[in-house]
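Aggregate trends can hide what the representation actually does to any particular protein. This step matters because it turns folding into a mapping between discrete strings. For completeness, the protein is quoted in full, as a sequence line and a line of structure tokens:
=====
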Amino acid sequence: MVLSKKYIAGFFDGEGSVTIMRNKRTKGTNNYRNYKYGLVVSICNTNKKIMEQINSQYPGVIYEHRDKRPNRKKVYVWQRWSKKAILFLNDIEPFVNVKLKQIQLGKKFQTTLSDFDRTRSNDRQYVDNRAMIFDDMHTKMMKTNGRFKKEAQTW
């Protein structure tokens, strides 16, 4: 059975996410230049058959997430990274309603990443500019996803 792009887009709207991952590159300070960034799309659901069907149409990785709390079902997580994530997002974007901002920001991030990769440089100003742009996009995605913790107000 082949799932339609509209069905997958609706499923993604309800169960999916677009994330700009930020992983620490080296030990040391929390300087923004010490991070590596990447685009990840994922869908989480308890129905393994649907997840396998999505994976057959858009090959990625499926893994099982076990919640140790009582009375919890197994959750299956499907993921695609970077350029493969963009191919998936391009296919479903016309049919998505809820996560359209995340998709657009994710696509902009991946395009920016590809542009920077084509013009690699060790120039300090170039590296600083690249890091600040990626850090800003990471923060915007967290805000769009509702995961940004506001700093405490000072009176």
Observations:
- The longest helix spans residues 124-144.
- The helical segments are 5-15, 48-57, 82-92, 100-118, 124-144.
- DSSP finds five helices and four strands in the chain.
- The domain at 5-144 is CATH 3.10.28.10 (Endonuclease I-creI).
